[in-house]
Write a structure and sequence with these properties.
By secondary structure, the chain is an alpha+beta fold. It contains five helices and nine strands. β7 and β8 form a beta hairpin. Bound molecules: zinc ion (ZN).
């Protein structure tokens, strides 16, 4: 909290009818901003990732500090995000808790239509707000390492054994190419993660 500038005001979402599940909490008023700078604080839990439909995050526990500053015709948004997320381990599928600490910036302008160019975002002036929920999610995901695996020797050994047996059986049963095609659509009974896992095991 020591990063907070004393001249900033702690602001609340302007929408009094905050509906859980619609991420309205993350709407940040720009056009009718009453001060030149504004501070928002969010606590993200597992519900945030469920609401944003991020199946790759099983749990989350983070805090976000957002500072909004009006500068001429634009708004500078600075995010500081810190906490942990839990994702499946790529190798054993067990929970893997990853630390998150990331600082990110967005420049937002008011215009006629919504547009995104590099880190400059234009939002319709008639709306006058930006919903930062999705951006916060992206910042978190971009801060994670590409490979999500436990440290060597810390994978769930029993699970790894079950998975390799399952994959061996599955490979042996792979006789009908039409079945295989169904599996890769992601709508079948086979969890798409099996396919990712198979790729990993095939490479070892
Ligand atoms: Zn693992």
């Amino acid at each position: 909290m020591d990063k907070i500038n004393n001249s900033s005001y702690l602001c609340r979402p302007v929408y009094s009818m905050v509906k859980v599940g619609e991420l309205n909490t993350y709407k940040v008023e720009l056009k009718n901003m009453r001060e030149d700078s504004c501070l928002y604080e969010y606590t993200l839990d597992s519900q945030f990732f469920a609401d944003i439909e991020a199946p790759d995050v099983r749990k989350g526990n983070l805090t976000v500090t957002l500072s909004v500053r009006k500068t001429g015709g634009a708004y500078a948004l600075s995010f500081h995000t810190e906490g942990t997320v839990t994702v499946p381990c790529d190798r054993c599928l067990d929970d893997l808790e990853l630390p998150v600490e990331t600082d990110d910036r967005l420049i937002v302008k008011l215009g006629t239509d919504f547009a995104e160019e590099e880190d400059i975002i234009t939002v319709p002036e008639e709306d006058g707000y930006i919903n930062v929920g999705w951006y916060i999610y992206e910042f978190i995901m971009l801060s994670l390492p590409i490979k999500h695996v436990h440290a060597p020797g810390e994978c769930n050994a029993a699970m790894t054994e079950i998975l390799s047996r399952h994959l061996a059986t599955e490979t042996a049963e792979e006789t009908d190419p039409s079945d295989e095609e169904e599996d890769t659509t992601g709508n079948g009974d086979i969890d798409p993660r099996w396919n990712d896992l198979r790729k990993i095991l095939d490479n070892n």
